[in-house]
Protein backbone atom coordinates (compact mmCIF):
# COMPACT_ATOMS: atom_id res chain seq x y z
CA UNK A 1 0.00 0.00 0.00
CA UNK A 2 1.18 3.45 -0.83
CA UNK A 3 0.89 6.46 1.37
CA UNK A 4 1.44 8.95 -1.39
CA UNK A 5 -1.93 8.79 -2.99
CA UNK A 6 -3.50 11.82 -1.46
CA UNK A 7 -2.96 14.46 -4.10
CA UNK A 8 -6.47 14.24 -5.34
CA UNK A 9 -7.72 15.33 -1.96
CA UNK A 10 -5.72 18.47 -1.73
CA UNK A 11 -7.50 21.43 -0.26
CA UNK A 12 -8.25 23.25 2.90
CA UNK A 13 -10.49 21.68 5.40
CA UNK A 14 -10.58 18.46 3.55
CA UNK A 15 -11.11 15.83 6.09
CA UNK A 16 -11.21 12.68 4.19
CA UNK A 17 -9.21 9.59 4.06
CA UNK A 18 -6.19 10.21 1.91
CA UNK A 19 -6.41 6.80 0.46
CA UNK A 20 -10.01 5.88 -0.11
CA UNK A 21 -11.63 9.26 0.41
CA UNK A 22 -14.15 8.28 3.00
CA UNK A 23 -14.93 10.47 5.94
CA UNK A 24 -16.00 7.71 8.19
CA UNK A 25 -13.85 6.66 11.10
CA UNK A 26 -11.28 9.20 10.21
CA UNK A 27 -8.02 9.29 12.05
CA UNK A 28 -6.00 12.45 12.02
CA UNK A 29 -3.01 11.73 14.10
CA UNK A 30 0.59 12.03 13.07
CA UNK A 31 -0.43 14.49 10.38
CA UNK A 32 -2.21 11.86 8.44
CA UNK A 33 -5.82 11.73 7.49
CA UNK A 34 -6.91 8.25 6.88
CA UNK A 35 -9.81 6.13 7.89
CA UNK A 36 -9.42 3.36 10.33
CA UNK A 37 -9.32 0.75 7.67
CA UNK A 38 -6.66 2.40 5.59
CA UNK A 39 -4.74 3.32 8.67
CA UNK A 40 -4.14 -0.26 9.39
CA UNK A 41 -2.96 -0.71 5.85
CA UNK A 42 -0.39 2.04 6.04
CA UNK A 43 0.47 1.55 9.66
CA UNK A 44 2.99 -1.06 8.78
CA UNK A 45 4.52 1.20 6.18
CA UNK A 46 5.01 4.10 8.50
CA UNK A 47 6.05 1.92 11.35
CA UNK A 48 3.06 2.70 13.45
CA UNK A 49 2.01 -0.57 14.81
CA UNK A 50 0.36 0.47 18.00
CA UNK A 51 -3.21 0.62 16.93
CA UNK A 52 -6.10 -1.67 17.05
ZN1 LIG B 1 -9.56 4.95 3.85
Name the features.
single chain, 52 residues, 30s Ribosomal Protein S14, Chain N, binds zinc ion, two-stranded antiparallel sheet, alpha+beta
Poorly predicted ranges: none
Provide a count of the helices. 1
CATH topology of the domain at 12-46: 30s Ribosomal Protein S14, Chain N
Please state the second-level CATH architecture of the domain at 12-46.
Irregular
Mean pLDDT: 75
For the record, what CATH class of the domain at 12-46 applies?
Few Secondary Structures
The backbone outline, from C-alpha atoms, is globular
Helix content: 10-25%
**In terms of structural class, how would the helical and strand content be classed?**
alpha+beta
Going across the biggest sheet, name each strand in turn.
1-2
What name goes with the CATH superfamily of the domain at 12-46? Ribosomal Protein S14/S29
| Rg value | 10 Å
Biggest β-sheet strands, sense, barrel:
2 strands, antiparallel
Could you spell the SSE succession in H and E letters? EEH
Assembly level: single chain
First-residue to last-residue Cα separation: 18 Å
Ligand catalogue: zinc ion
Summarize the structure.
This protein is an alpha+beta fold and 52 residues long.
Write a structural description.
- This protein is of the alpha+beta class.
- The protein has a domain at 12-46: 30s Ribosomal Protein S14, Chain N (Irregular).
- The chain is built from 1 helix and 2 strands, in the order ββα.
- The protein has one helix spanning 36-46, and strands at residues 26-27, 34-35.
- Strands 1-2 form a two-stranded antiparallel ribbon.
- The longest helix has 11 residues, at 36-46.
- Zinc ion binds next to strand 2 and helix 1.
- Residues 17, 19-20, 22, 34-35, 37-38 line the site of zinc ion (ZN).
